[in-house]
Each structure stands twice: as structure tokens, then as C-alpha cells.
Amino acid sequence: MSEQPMPDWTVGAEAIVYQCCAACGNLQYFRRSFCCICGAPDPVEKRANGQGTIYATSLVCRAATAETRAHVPYNIVLVDTEEGFRMMGHGSNDLCIGDKVKARFARFADRLIPYFERAV
Description:
Blueprint: E1 17-20, E2 27-28, E3 44-47, E4 51-60, E5 74-81, E6 86-91, E7 100-108, E8 111-118
Parallel strand pairs: 6-8
Antiparallel strand pairs: 1-2, 1-3, 4-5, 4-7, 5-6, 7-8
């Protein structure tokens, strides 16, 4: 990546950033300095709109760490975004596969995370 990366939730900004390869069109999420399909350097960064569809969901009922204990139960979701990549995030406990969702950003164990709720 030759330019400064766009800030996203991993550095505390309220944004989801993905990459698109200029050579082959592959979409990828998380950042890399190359396309994981064709190897071309410097994929273009784009900002996602935060909307998608629930692909999978898993309700966590036992905390993995002391920091996450206060959040139990919490839902981990896989979301197929409107842009065409799949990402993991947190979501409302009542989400089901196929639900249309929109991301907001919330604090979880003292970190900013994407949190998906049913779209209205």
C-alpha cells in the first residue's frame, strides 16, 4: 500500500474498509499489501456502507476472557455485505440467517467493533 490506509474500526474510526484489486476485481477483507487471488500489489481501499445479509450466527454464552464476561450472551455473526465480501462482527442476539442488517459501532471489551442490527 503506497498511500496511508483509510482509517477503520480496527484503529477506532467508525468505518468498515475493504479492498478491491485493480487487476482482477477481487474483493478482500482484511487489508493486505497485495491481492490474495492474483498477487497484484496495492489493492484499492473502499469504504463499505455497512449493509448486508446474515450468513451465519453463533450465540456465545460463556466468556472467553474476563473482559468479555460482562457482555455474555453475545452474538457473533458472519455478514455478506452489499459490496460483495463476507465479514465477521457482533450482532443483536435475535438475528437469524437471511436477515438484512445494518452496522453501527459499539464498545465491546473496551474496543470499538462493528455491531449489526436488523435493517428497517
